[in-house]
Amino acid sequence: MTSPPSRPGVRPDLAEVFRRNYPRVVGVAARVLGSPDSAEDVAQEVFLAFGRSSVPTGEAGGWLSVAAAHTALNLLRDGRRRAVREENAATGTDAVAGDVADDVVVREERTRVRAALARLPRRQAVVLVLRHSGLSYAEVATALDMSPGSIGTTVRRAEAALRKELNGHASSG
Amino acid sequence: MRHPDEGVLRRLLDEPAGVADADRRHVADCQVCLTGLAAAHADAAAAGTALRAVPAGDVDLAAAWRRLSATLPAADRERAPAAARRRGARLRRPAIATLAFLVVLTGAGVAAANDWLPIFRTERIAPVSVTTSDLVALPDLTGYGDVELTGAGEPQQVADAAAAREATGLDVPQVGPLPRGVSGDPTYQVVGELSGVFTFSADKAAQAAAAAGEALPPVPAGLDGSQVRLVAGPGLAAVWSQEGGMPTLVVGRAVAPRAFSSGVPFETLRDYLLALPGLPPNVADQLRSFTGDGTTLPLPVPADQVRTSSADVGGRPATVLEARDRSFAGVVWVDDGVVTAVAGALGADEVLSVARELR
After folding, report:
1. Which of A88, A159, B69, B349 could form a disulfide with B47 if both were Cys (CB 3.0 to 4.6 A apart)?
2. Chain B CB within 8 Å of residue A152 CB
3. Hey, are the CB atoms on A44 and B64 less than 8 Å from each other?
4. Contacting residues of B for A77, CB less than 8 Å apart
5. Chain B interface includes A51 (CB < 8 A)
6. Which residues form the RNA polymerase sigma factor 70 region 4 type domain (chain A) (predicted)?
7. 3-state secondary structure of B162
8. Number of domains in chain A
9. Which residues from chain A sit within 8 angstroms of residue B54, using beta carbons?
10. Between chains, do A152 and B6 touch, taking CB under 8 Å as contact?
């Protein structure tokens, strides 16, 4: 990967921050959206925003993860139709060879998870996604400006709420 | 020893080293906690399965970097029109995200849940309207009595600054140097005075409390049927937009909200309403701002999405709002009963700079 040409308005640390964080940022968005292609779109948006921000380099990892979670959740909330379309397209392209019925089950499961995630309170959803993307409790607390002691409670309640949403949807459908 | 809370039990699953020794020992010997731990484990496993990473193959870092590089700001727009055009296209999606944020920030997002006043009842309100309307917003008290609104209506576009001044009687702020990414001439919007007479109803308040699963606190003598008049505006806004129509910078000004009462003092009613169970937090925040003397800010701020801080603009204390994802920032202050706000898809330092250069 080459360094960016020196341009006014582009942070000099962007290439290094990108290299260190891009896979994780894609991972955060993918957990929300269920589609690798959509997740990369979100990651591109997030790094563009970072590129023109004044976020300190030391806080970049947490900032990018939070921004990816919010941006992806916004997509779920505001563009559910588009997200579903993208998800379907992505499922078509990255589905491994296998039983068609399995693909349908996987796709339905992903759609159910996305809908459940979109119904969670925003903070719970973000904490949940960050934790399941591998951020430590301390990292989540720092990134979201929360007290470290509150992360476990928020994760716990988010997981209980997600499971309830998924079970409720399953039993009603 | 009391049982560790559910958060401690949850952390025990992920980061046992982060849990105090005493708590770990307690859990190991406590059937109640072990049961709670098992439940936490089951929910965590279910969430882990639901959120497991999609099989994405390896991320192509080099290709992703090339894509990002192609959309980074061009060094010189005059010499690189193609690059500038690409940037405009790429910015559209973040701008839409900002629009969504603006809607949340300024009340329309709350509308669905809380049935805000009619000025917010447009499902997909234009961002400029949102910002301008927000300057003359009133708290939604329809759950606690009858509200009769007069005035305001939708914001109107006017020809220029002089027309905005004539329509509102307010001086139009003159902006100094524009921040990077903001260019061209602004459009001007005005919105009239919004006035609402609120008649408190103990019956309605009791229903709202019951909906929240609680009883109504004792109603002070003379409060049932008492009226207050809340007034906000008029206001104006200068709006700079990018080619796609998304605003990049908004400078707004409005007469600060005021409250008038007959009979029971407004503060008595306000404090009682604030004590009611089920009062939506945003409404409570907005209601608190009605001190009756026009000196505080009408800001329904969702604290989980916006970070607030203090600053100084021209010797006046100002409130800086910054989206936690830093996609948006604004600064608001009151001077002699007039609210002025500068906001946009900018950094906090940029909006503060614009605010301090206003003439």
Report:
1. A159
2. yes
3. yes
4. 100
5. yes
6. 112-162
7. helix
8. 1
9. 30-31, 34-36, 39, 94, 110
10. yes
State the pLDDT at residue B112.
Answer: 24
Average confidence (pLDDT) per 10 residues, chain B, 359 residues:
89 86 88 91 91 70 84 43 27 26 28 22 22 49 75 74 92 91 86 77 84 81 80 80 68 76 72 76 64 46 64 85 72 79 84 93
Structural domain range at position A107:
14-172
Q: CB pairs under 8 A, 24+ apart, for B18-27?
A: B18/A137, B18/A138, B26/B1
* A1 within a domain of the structure (yes/no): no
Residue B132: the pLDDT is 39
Could you tell me if A30 lies within 8 Å of chain B, comparing CB atoms? yes
Q: A75 lies in a domain?
A: yes
Give the residue from A43, A57, A31 showing the smallest Cα distance to A130: A31
CB distance A66–B10 less than 8 Å? no
CATH number of A26's domain:
1.20.140
Residue A108 amino acid letter:
E
Burial B129-157 (b: 16+ CB within 10 A, else e): bbbbbbbbbbbbbbbbbebebebbeebee
Q: According to the model, what pLDDT value does residue A161 have? A: 94
In this prediction, residue A163 has a pLDDT band, given cuts at 50, 70 and 90, of very high
Per-residue pLDDT tens digits for A27-66? 999 999 888 888 998 899 889 888 877 788 888 999 899 9
What's the pLDDT score for residue B3?
92
> Could you give the CA distance from residue A85 to residue A93 in angstroms, rounded to a whole number?
13
Mutate to test the interface with A, among B5, B19, B51, B327 (most CBs of A within 10 A): B51
Rounded mean pLDDT of A132-151?
90
